[in-house]
Sequence to fold (381 residues):
Amino acid sequence: MNIENSSEEALINGHFSGGGFAFYRLPGTLTYTFTAQHDVPFTMTSFAELKGLHGVVVAPFILSDQTPLVCIRPDVLTEKKVPLSDALQQSCESMNAGVFRLPNASYDRTNEGRASYNDGFEICLDHLKKGSIRKVVYSRRQTRDIPRGYETQLAALFFEACRRQPNHYVSLWWTPQTGCWLVATPETLLADDDMNERTWQTMALAGTMPSEPQNLLLANWSEKNKKEQAYVSAFISQRLEQLVDEMNISPVFPSPAANVIHLRTDFSFKLKNEISPETLLDRLHPTPAVCGEPQIPARSVISMAETTPRRYYAGFSGPFSLVGNTRLYVSLRCMELFADRACLYAGGGLLSDSNEAEEWKETCRKLKPMEELIQLLNTRV
Fold:
């Protein structure tokens, strides 16, 4: 094992040979963290197995043998300032050097079109109108080609996402088990308080409108959007009630997120002494912000309606008991990266009165930030 080949520099030079790595930049900060594990991380299929571990956690939408929970151990751990200049400037010749290569994508693109989306939408709508579920988050995948040999640009792609999304959590991670993903998300799943180890925060983030000035006023939001977000708030409040000693809940407010605006409620709470973060994760994930209400029937509808597997989309990632802090964020506005293409994901919450054309437009808006990164990468390589 060559420990030097687990460094950030080894990745940039195309010679990374460690077992996994992660870059992350916390919202509103100017520095990023790089961590890597020399050997391959072991996999887990329950949140309870996180007890006593520290590192960068990567979790899927649904835990399974095919999409396990992974914790990248910090054998290498560095913190640096995010570069301010454009890093996507290497030539095609330099791109072809190196031994670190991502695999080719094996996904079939035939189920990614509007017709397939409409078919799944009708399945969701049927269950919503029958009353078996009150809300379901319906998502789709969109594939974009990438020139081969771009792996030495992965760090630059992460830096560009950081510059474009200064108030989002941005992360790039790779392990053999999870594949390589880039995330720039506005949604916190669970974060501890720097000043009090038993105090935590989460949020209910749902409902979507275009990023226009009038949508910063709550009064201009539709009842559909308000109801969609209220399901998430009620779920989180109910799940926390038995686990906390104290809880403060903010009023709902519009929260900008790149080219869209969401409705948001913030929760701050103090965990009971006997409750662990692992238990909290098990109770919260997946919330109705990415799944639906009720949770179990909504998961069943998702499995019937969606023709492309979510994998780590709508899961979560972030530092877990790393340098004394835990900051976990829902994997929205994300894409899985392969040698020859990127698979982008986006979804939206459906209620019984949802309109297919409007929901399709919403997914297009949510896909746009990652599509712009891919377009930029294609022009530079």
